[in-house]
Amino acid sequence: MQKHKSTIKRILAYIGHYKWGVLASLVLAAITVASTLYLPVLIGYAVDCIVSAGHVDFTKLTGILGKMAVMIAITAISQWLMNHINNVITYRVVKDIRTKAFDHLEILPLKYIDSHPSGDVVSRIIADIDQFSEGLLMGFTQLFTGVITILGTLGFMFSINPLIAVVVVCVTPVSLVVASFIAKKTYVMFKAQSETRGELTSLVDEMLGNQKVVQAFGHEDEAQESFEEINERLRGYSLKAIFFSSITNPATRFVNSLVYASVGVAGAFAAVRGYLSVGQLSSFLSYANQYTKPFNEISGVVTELQNALASAARVFALIDEEPITPEDADAVDLKQAEGRVELDHVNFSYVPEKSLIEDFNLSVKPGQRIAIVGPTGCGKSTVINLLMRFYDVKSGAVRVDGNDVRHMTRRSLRANYGMVLQETWLKSGTIRDNIAYGKPDATDEEIIRAAKEAHAHSFIKRMPEGYNTVITEDGGNLSQGQKQLLCIARVMLCLPPMLILDEATSSIDTRTEIRIQKAFATMMKGRTSFIVAHRLSTIREADVILVMRDGHIIEQGNHESLLAKNGFYAQLYNSQFAAS
After folding, report:
1. How far is CA 48 from CA 67, 188, 521, in A?
2. For residue 53, what are the contacts with CB-CB under 8 A and spacing of at least 6?
3. pTM (2 d.p.)
4. CA 530 → CA 3, 228, 407, 409, 481, distances in Å?
5. Per-residue model confidence as pLDDT tens digits over 226-236
6. Pairing of strands 528-532, 357-364
7. Are 382 and 548 in contact (CB under 8 A)?
8. Could you give phi then psi for residue 176, rounded to 5 degrees?
9. Which residues, other chains included, contact 318 with Cβ-Cβ below 8 Å and sequence gap of 6+?
């Protein structure tokens, strides 16, 4: 319940940015309701103009009909304006929340991204905010007018006949009890529905992105079973949510009929005894109908608001996630690094109870080539994550040019690294845009030169539109090797003072790899380079080879000296070339 109130407060804070629009909407709602409620009074006057057969005061009736036409026009115009303002406020609030969520996603630490399915995050930013917008719009449109209508009709009814108005007020709590019961039930179900929808989106996103692997391993049936299991749970939660929300209409209609019948009976007795005219009774019945209608609408709004609140709570949970450690106010802006890198007694673990890197020490001189080798899971990629400050060390320090990376701006640190990973990433757009991703102002000559150095120029020229060829998300219409060549060209274009090559040639054929290695050799001249490789043939020229196992450096030296030691590196190297 406390979380419920907190969510409402936060929504009201976003709405508060548009308080003048809300005020205008309230004024228009009051005008709409006032003009709508004045109509039954005019109808009552019109009825009283008809005294009996052949006795009609047409002069008075004509004036009343003119007033009715004016009231109807005022109602229509004010309602249209109110709905327009409500739409503007709703979609601006939704835009603000979605922007805030996406902006926060940009500053979340990688550990959050690594530990949460991407489909669930997408579902929060897209589907949940859409659900929230629908509930908020309905709330704006119907809640204001509903509340004002209830208060207005009560005022008019008390002015006509207080006793009958008291009858109406006594029956009202039944509607409130029904609405309260439904609200509690629907929130739980809609919350479960939103969470399961995110789970389903995550599964579909995962299966779609890895469809080739799914088919290659014959995993279609298992994927279908997983989908059906989650989909069945979603069906169950959705049915329960819809069931409880669908109780709203018949329950409130029952209360409406009860109120209307009570007014009709009480009014009939009052009219027979002369306490009411026939016209006043007709007005009262109109008010009774208008009084009960908002309860029906508000109950529906409450149901939608429960869905909206459940969705908003998931979005706010994302926004509330702890962001990356803020940069120091006096953080150093690393301009052009010399390339001196130190890891000083570094300790790190992804989960507190399981240590990975322990007392790791490394000193790299500017321009040195450092190769990192070792079995899977030994911490090679973790070292890269620490160098780039994707993760912060638990203790110890990582320094560049003598400065602790925690006291540098992340943007300037990463701008001094060129990075080619085993897992390629390309965005939807032209090949030119993808190569120039790190240097958007690059000229065509620079882009072509980088592509030639990466040996990507020849296959690009064979594409339908050359460098203007549009590639799909993550380069889906290119081979894995072609995607990797584009990623290499991207780094070739920027050529920062430090390089990280994490299995950079893993998807390239041997012939192209030989040419790429020559390009890398040129690129690495005078630049501090970190090379992670499983194929040990690619690191023979490294100045220093670090052999890692279980988060520790167990051997260190160049290729020849490590082979001469006949230790773990020699075993790894000989195992790869045993056949030859």
Report:
1. 16, 52, 101
2. none
3. 0.66
4. 48, 46, 22, 21, 21
5. 888 888 888 88
6. unpaired
7. no
8. -65, -40
9. 101, 104, 105, 121, 124, 125
